[in-house]
Description:
2 domains, three-stranded antiparallel beta sheet, 18 strands, 30% helix, binds adenosine-5'-diphosphate
Amino acid sequence: MAISRAVSLGTAVLALLPMLWTSGCSKAGESAVSAAEDGGPQSISVFAMDTYMQLTAYDGQKSAALSQAKDEVERLEKLWSVTDEGSEIYRLDHSGGEPAEISDETAELIAFGMELNELTGGAFDISLYPVLSEWGFTNGDYKIPSEERLSELLKNVDSSRIELSGNAAVLPDGMSIDLGALGKGETGDRITEIFRANGVSSALLDLGGNIQVIGSKPDGSPWKIGIKSPWGEGSVAKLEVRDCCVITSGGYERFFEGGDGEIYWHILDPKTGYPAKNGILSATVIGKSGRLCDGLSTSLFVLGEEGAKKLWRERGDFDMILITEDGRLIMTEGIAGEVSLYEEFSGLETEVMSRD
Ligand code: ADP
Ligand code: MG
């Protein structure tokens, strides 16, 4: 289908594309605080979890909220990094099948990942890490693995085999996990708590395309979030929200061209070990819990249209916007009234799903 690629963003639209932030962002490991005139918003940019994060508070104890949020992001990164030898996940991944001690918060997030694995019939799996690494998605050194290698690695992929008991976790020997598919959403939830505790009632958190907002804009109007086009630059639609998370997983976010004309992206189907190509180009989940939205956006992308619709019907705790390969935009009834297509995409076929 023909869809124009160039979209200009309305000035009122916070499309929150990474490019809006990167210019003002610091280098890895650094952060910068910018303060507007008295009473204005305050922002901080942090590079952590492989992501440029931009946090903006509009009221309350802004400086305290931002500095506590930065400390928390850095603490969580140390706790859950797969590469930092001091992290709990590193220790667990190198425990050789022996029990490893982990904190309550790590145990809880692993348990949540396991719940999602069950809920999605295995489409979401935190133990995919060695397969993602084989493809080079963890370090950018991309290659197409052989089928033999993939089936070998897939033998150790099955997060339902993780044993969790209080603060002890046992991974079957050969298994490694990564909480990356949930970590940013969870981090957004923690920042939201910190902001609220500091009296912030209007804030925008952009964690590399994971958007979490507190309250409304300072003038009381809803936040306007752009749903990125999976076909190129710009946004397909504008979404107006208050107090919620808008988290998207798309094949366009990280991918390589295989030399065989095929595009290989970073969201894999745990059943095959190959990039999930089930008809969806991007899946956006809208809801109250960042970690749920984060995990579900990846899950829906893997499940494909039918699986995603089925899961939405079974649950009452999220809304979704799916953009399909054949050029349709599917949205659920709870959010449909808040979505408007940009003119350049007004030709997209839209479909509203209702529960009955
Ligand atoms: P982001 O990289 O912005 O977090 P996503 O939310 O779409 O993007 O999460 C994708 C990440 O999750 C991948 O980079 C990868 O580390 C991991 N991942 C890929 N496929 C799966 C899957 N089927 N289940 C769980 N995690 C996955
Ligand atoms: Mg995700």
